[in-house]
Design a protein that fits this description.
mainly alpha, two-stranded antiparallel sheet, about 70% helix, binds geranylgeranyl diphosphate
Length: about 300
């Protein structure tokens, strides 16, 4: 495999995270124009750290297809805003009811439930305002339109929100007690869709062909599924301190997970198998991005 060694990978990743933070900050709303507590709550969650994987996957897929323009930046900020809004809402009392996220108190734990709902909504809306900034650039309108459509669709009913709405009915006591097929539906929508979207947007804005964009969608689907199964495994084997969020959250909320249905060892094997498929598919694309391949490998073996 064409990988970056681990020391170089960590250094490159740190540099990319720093660049992504600068991009995100440059697109955050201006304090003067925003109600004070709403501003504080949404900046609190956006600045709480986080691995910034989705904007980095977007950027690296963009680079894989030869993209090198600033037009990608509003989309990088937008995808992290959408992701962060979903985490704020996921932590709310009505959903997972968690008080720890990214190593700090959750947004609703600090600012109250109403502000948790509103700052999540505000970030989701502001993500689209932000992505639309890309239309200020002198850039192909059809590609921008397609990128906007992917961003909206993968977040919505046919993506993250659709998957999450099935997941809230997933509980061992019985609303839904998913089998592997249903669990795969949930994961592919609530998690993979927000990995597919940034990778597809990177490919679209770099001018990839239709078939290549579909291949990137398939790769993102696999990476997302592996990422979520790893998340379920870490929920069982890790600690609050390492993860920065409460472990055993799935058990507390009586969620059926891959670790339950397959057992830990088979779930780990599934993560490795799907990741290998994703990397094999990446290698069929024109161009080469060793960092991206290493990132996908690292996501499968992550401890946080
Ligand atoms: C209104 C936008 C909105 C959303 C509501 C709650 C919800 C719908 C969707 C939740 C989707 C969700 C939380 C899926 C889990 C995906 C997952 C494993 C997220 C953790 O991602 P990391 O590890 O987080 O990349 P960091 O903190 O590093 O960014």
């Amino acid at each position: 495999m064409r990988m970056v060694n681990s020391e170089n990978f960590d250094k490159m990743m740190a540099e990319k995270v720093e660049y992504v933070q600068d991009v995100i900050r440059s697109f955050l709303p201006k304090k003067e124009n925003c109600p004070e507590t709403l501003y504080d709550a949404l900046v609190y969650s956006m600045e709480a750290g986080g691995k910034r994987l989705r904007p980095i996957l977007m950027l690296e897929t963009y680079r894989l297809f030869g993209g090198n323009k600033a037009v990608i930046e509003p989309f990088m900020a937008a995808i992290e805003m959408i992701h962060t809004s979903s985490l704020i809402h996921d932590d709310l009392p009505a959903i997972d009811n968690d008080e720890l996220r990214r190593g700090r108190k959750t947004t609703h734990a600090v600012y109250g439930e109403a502000m948790g709902i509103l700052s999540g909504d505000a970030l989701l809306n502001y993500a689209y305002e932000t992505a639309l900034e890309a239309f200020r650039y002198n850039f192909d309108r059809d590609s921008l339109f397609l990128a906007m459509k992917v961003l909206a669709a993968k977040t919505g009913i046919y993506g993250m929100l659709g998957g999450q709405s099935v997941d809230v009915e997933n509980d061992k006591k019985g609303n839904l007690s998913p089998d592997l097929g249903m669990l795969e539906y949930i994961h592919k929508h609530k998690t993979s869709a927000l990995i597919e979207a940034p990778m597809m947007i990177g490919a679209i804005l770099a001018g990839a062909q239709k078939g290549e964009i579909s291949c990137v969608e398939e790769i993102g689907g696999k990476i997302g599924l592996a990422f979520q199964i790893r998340d379920d495994i870490l929920d069982v084997i890790s600690t609050d301190d390492v993860l920065g969020k409460p472990v055993r959250s799935d058990a507390k909320n009586e969620k059926v997970t891959y670790a339950d249905l397959l057992g830990l060892e088979a779930a780990k094997k599934k993560v490795n198998d799907i990741t290998a498929e994703a990397i094999r598919l990446l290698q069929t694309l024109p161009g080469e991005n060793q960092f991206l391949e290493s990132l996908v490998e690292n996501m499968a073996n992550r401890n946080k």
